[in-house]
Design goal:
Two copies of one chain form a homodimer. Chain A is an all-alpha fold. Chain A is 83% helix and 0% strand. In chain A, α1 runs parallel beside α3, α2 runs antiparallel to α3 and α4 packs parallel to α6. The termini of chain A are far apart. Chains A and B meet through α2, α3, α5 and α6 of A and α2, α3, α5 and α6 of B.
Chain lengths: 235, 235
């Protein structure tokens, strides 16, 4: 291998590392948005909610920059199969994080009409659900940073806890609505917020599957369905 | 330009055309899934609903093949800026279609628990909403096939009709729930189904924005927010 090829390969690796760093930063911003969105639900702070909504643009911009960077990198270099896998995975992970940011912004957006109607106590169930989802996203970002397939597997496996918390909250909200029809409007907002957070858990598992695939070179066993609401029949 | 370069450029264009054809076929499959999902809601056919859910795998597989093909193409060739824009847009459009397929499968999946509970008359409002969304997706696929920015603009502009139909259905379902608490479970499923279809409209507008950007070289004016539920405060 001559020095020139060596140099190209080295800087390619450096660019991949830089890319990975940007994706992790983007993910940290998305988790911060999720935590802020739950905070504004609790505080019923309309202006803070609007700030969370507005901040989502920064995540969208980061995703555009990352994916344009990936495409330009691919156009200028000819990576090998294993590198291609990592590059391709980076595109997917960035797209999952962008959607996590979208869902977090939607939770904040829903809190605005919610703050105008009667308070409903299941809001604490929403916080619990959000904490589980935020912990999953943080863990999967660590797994991505460290290329740690075992840690990614744990996130994938533990998504069932997020789903169970969602299903419990779903049933609780339905009971509230049946007992007190005046709570229907606010409970409907809480239902959509809960669904948004449950979907964040699904995107964390998508990222976990990607990490596993890049590290192990084979798909994670019994892949989860990618669609919304995998446990809809149990609701 | 020598013959060899000419040959490479020509086959690059051919590959882009082939890619475009695959994406349109994938889109047609997604629209067919949307139409089938509404059909199973009306007929309350649980087995047919399960077939729609299962068919979503075919769309996911097509998206994976398309995006892997794109990445391989980029790795092997060095396209120019304008080609890069088209290639990049193809990745985005395929991703939007994959999500349209997901949402259609979710509508079908929701119809299974719905068929076990009391019937609710707003189901016809759901059909109307789905017809509007399906028409948007068909039109934006035509615009993509023909590189027609004006047609894409019409889809983008007319998404407000999908949003209005969604908001009307949302209010109708809330009224039903308040008037008859026994309808709450089925109306909740219908709410989520309506939201899934409204999101399909948003993905059609994302595709429209992509077409506009590739043809015109600049973003469509006053870009729509990409998040879920852009009109949540009007619900």
């Amino acid at each position: 291998m001559n020095t020139s090829t060596d140099h190209i390969i080295k800087s390619y690796d450096q660019e991949l590392d830089r890319l990975r760093g940007e994706i992790v930063r983007m993910g940290e911003l998305a988790v911060a948005q999720l935590e802020a969105s739950i905070d504004v639900v609790e505080r019923r702070d309309e202006r803070a909610a609007q700030r969370v909504v507005d901040n989502d643009d920064a995540i969208d911009t980061m995703e555009h920059e990352i994916s344009h960077g990936v495409v330009r990198l691919l156009a200028l270099r000819a990576p090998m199969a294993s590198d291609l896998r990592a590059v391709f995975s980076a595109l997917r992970v960035a797209s999952d994080i962008e959607r996590i940011g979208d869902y977090a912004a939607n939770v904040a957006k829903r809190s605005i009409p919610l703050s105008m109607v009667a308070p409903v106590s299941p809001a604490h169930g929403l916080k619990h659900l959000a904490q589980l989802a935020a912990a999953s996203v943080r863990k999967v970002l660590n797994a991505y940073r460290e290329d740690d397939a075992d840690m990614a597997y744990e996130v994938w496996r533990d998504d069932v806890d997020v789903d169970e918390a969602y299903n419990a909250l779903f049933r609780e909200l339905l009971t509230y609505m049946m007992e007190d029809p005046r709570s229907i409007t606010s409970c409907t907002h809480l239902l959509f917020m809960a669904k948004n957070i449950e979907r964040i858990g699904d995107h964390a598992t998508n990222i976990a599957e990607n990490i596993w695939f890049v590290v192990k070179g084979e798909p994670l066993e019994a892949p989860r369905k990618k669609g919304d609401e995998p446990h809809v029949t149990h609701e």
